[in-house]
Amino acid sequence: MSLIDSAERLSQRALKLARVVAAAGPRRALVKTRTAAGMEHAPVLSYCQAKTVIDVGANKGQFALAARHVLPEARIIAFEPLAQAAEVFEANFAGDQNVELHRLALSDSAGQARFHVAGRADSSSLLALGQNQTAVFGVSADHEIEVTTARMDEALNLADCPGPILLKIDVQGAEHLVLAGAPQSLAAIAFVYVECSYISLYETQALFTHILDQMAAAGFELVGAFNTHFDPALGPIQADVLFRKVKS
């Protein structure tokens, strides 16, 4: 990593921390559990104005904390299979009756699966970590555990969820599996905000063009890409991409 790249990452982290400290709810979580809210997602949350937020790959609640700050009345339904991260999530939202957490890994099938836990837990995945994950982010595999998987269509009933509904997916390379298990759910969802990679970071990972095709087939159009990570040697690595349902 070059000195310029290091300085840029430090600048981005400093800006994120400043946004967290400036907001009361995220600031409390930072002090209570050392969880930094994903305030870089605030513009997208503000644009979508969702009344229900489905957070797949919730980790400690980084995205959900930003959602609660921007959308204080929204219902939040989260999924996180890692026990330690889920415990922190629950601590961050203790007493919030409009937040629910399911300790599941959403995928294209229900059952049990091996889960690859990384040295940095938020890089853990249903997919094995690839060489680029180590080369770009310095993250490697640590150990494996068994987790319970479910299809979104079977794990959620969106009939009683107020709309518009925003689905956020950040599951470290397995985003295409979540989408494959959610055809019925997608019919009720207005926006999908998904982390997409331009190069393979995990084994058998589906890249941006595949996700784009999946979303088009489900009746969604591309809105834009946000928070792009750029590597000086490899170019654009990944971004958070927003899709919206095509109006009939």
How does this model look, in words?
By secondary structure, this protein is of the alpha/beta class. It has a single domain, classed as Rossmann fold. 35% of the residues lie in helices and 28% in strands. The chain has a 7-stranded mixed sheet. The radius of gyration is 17 Å and the shape is globular.
Main sheet: which strands, in order across?
3-2-1-7-8-10-9
Shape: globular
What's the architecture, going by CATH?
A: 3-Layer(aba) Sandwich
Which class do the helix and strand fractions yield? alpha/beta
Please compute the radius of gyration using only Cα atoms: 17 Å
Number of strands: 10
CATH class descriptor name:
Alpha Beta
Average predicted local confidence, pLDDT: 91
> Helices and strands, in N-to-C order?
HHHEHEHEEEHEHEHHEHEE
Largest sheet: 7 strands, mixed
Which fold does the CATH topology refer to?
Answer: Rossmann fold
- SS element count, helices: 10
Counted up, domains total 1
Helix content: 25-40%
Identify low-pLDDT runs: 1-8
Strand content: 25-35%
Could you give a short description of this structure?
The chain has 248 residues and is of the alpha/beta class.
Question: What's the helix and strand layout?
Answer:
Blueprint: H1 3-22, H2 24-33, H3 42-48, E1 52-56, H4 62-70, E2 75-79, H5 83-92, E3 99-102, E4 105-106, E5 111-118, H6 131-137, E6 141-150, H7 152-155, E7 165-169, H8 175-180, H9 183-186, E8 191-197, H10 208-217, E9 220-231, E10 235-245
Parallel strand pairs: 1-2, 1-7, 2-3, 4-6, 7-8
Antiparallel strand pairs: 5-6, 8-10, 9-10
